[in-house]
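G., the chain you wanted modeled:
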Amino acid sequence: MSAKPLTASDSEALAMMPSDWFTFWDIPIRLNRPAYRVERLVKAGVIESRVKGTYPDHVIEYRVKGNAGEGQ
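Predicted structure as tokens:
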């Protein structure tokens, strides 16, 4: 499956992401449709995700890969 190219909104969202591991709740509130944007960025391969904890107290964390968020 080929990832779609990043849109201007995706690039803007990427520039807003924290620099280290973060949860969905750490994403700035001003980001439009944050869940959708993070999912697109994960599918595009510029953000990685991991699951921490055990059920039912697990959480998904995200991190921008390499320097993908720099210079946006």
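The first strand starts at residue 47 and ends at 52.

Shout if anything looks off.
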